[in-house]
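Record type: ASSEMBLY
Status: queued
Input:
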Amino acid sequence: MAQAQRLEQEVMALREEVAALRERLHEAEEVRRAIERGEVDAFVVGPRQEDKRVLLLAGAYSRYRQLIDEMEQGTVTVGTQGEILFANRRFADIAGAALGELYRARLAEYLHADDRAAVASLLRDQDAAEGGIEVRLVRPGGGQARVRVTLASTWEHYSTLVVTDLSQEEAAAEARQTLEAIRRGEVDAFVMGETVVTLNNAPDPYQVLADRIQQGAVTLSARGRIVYANARLLRMLGVPAERLLGMPFENYVSLADRPAVAALLEPPHNGRPPQAEVRLLRQGAEPLEVVLSAATLAEGQSMWLVTDITEAKRHRAADERTRKFLGMLAHEFRNMLNTMRTSVDLLEHETGEADRRNTLDTLKRHMQRMLHVVEDLRTINPKD
Amino acid sequence: MTTREAPDNEIWDLRLYTAGQTAKSLAAIRNLKRICDKHLAGRYHIEVIDLVANPRLARDDQIVAIPTLVRKLPDPLRKIVGDFSDEERSLVGLQLRPHKQQD
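Status: finished
Output:
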């Protein structure tokens, strides 16, 4: 019986405790709503009863409160234990949290683990980072925000930080920079979805032509640096445009031929030769023999046509070999035909059977030899 | 904006977005190489991405205008729009020079 009574008393006590906790929770909710409505102008802060102090936001400060709530930068006031005492709407936006949640939290909960020490250090020593520090806020719903945190003020029991969202700041700076570049005329193409639109949609017709011709073409500055190279020259040298542009052209010419290139860069009135035969250096390949033909453009630039003569030289050598071969062949045939004609003459005048047979054998032998030569010729490649 | 001196062992990883061989794209390649040779000799790597050939690659770095340079390294990532014809402004953009005081 006594045990049942004791149990009932305990249950009653627990019910009362739950009721009291409900009341406190209700009160806390009321406080939170009042804070959100801006109806609270002072807080009692401090970890222990004897240390409690009153933090005033009221009176003359209320208009600042309104200003702070509406400003574009986030601001957060933290107590000595890092607990959030106040945060404006902007800070809540950047941190991706509801204002009510923030009042129950510590600032560290919203900071990237690697950045917590830096913020703690900033709160300890104002002089340590005058321009503020860049840290990451971790949003409860996922994602991060890069922010710059500066210490605005420090009092004995709390410090106020100003938080600037760098991603927005950077996006605005980028947009401004793009506009400025367009105004300066430094942009000539835009990306629209997956299409690139060039401002001069019809490319320079001469450039198109230069890109399609079978000869190499290169435009050089007055000092001989490559300003433009067409597709054919890029293939000849076996290098991409980005490696070629801006480089001195002579870097791609054999050492022995560089004086000839320098002479070609001279203005026409200085006795510039019309063209030069040089060897172009190629990475991982034999040098290429080319003829450079120069033409002067505006502003001291010059354009050179680069003609690959390796092929032409090969053709010339092959022609020479064919000519020699044909000469030798004609000589051989003439010798054989002469011998055969002599044999036929002899046959007309010879009367002895044995002599006629000998001459006929010679004739047959030479005919057989000619037939072999003709057979061989049918299998020969004239380029060999 | 912060001022920085590039340490000798710091490698600069740059990505230049171009549109084929337009005048500004060619100028950007040429000028950027000249600036890098002068201020970052032996410590830079430029990757040129031709968006005419591969327009989808614009999505990675959210490119709008061409030419645009993206500084991948050193951190933080930075974008510079233009053809680098003004060396001083380019150095400020790359954070190799202090920013001039704004009016």
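Annotation: Chain B has two helices and five strands.
Annotation: The beta strands of chain B are 12-18, 44-50, 65-66, 68-73, 78-81.
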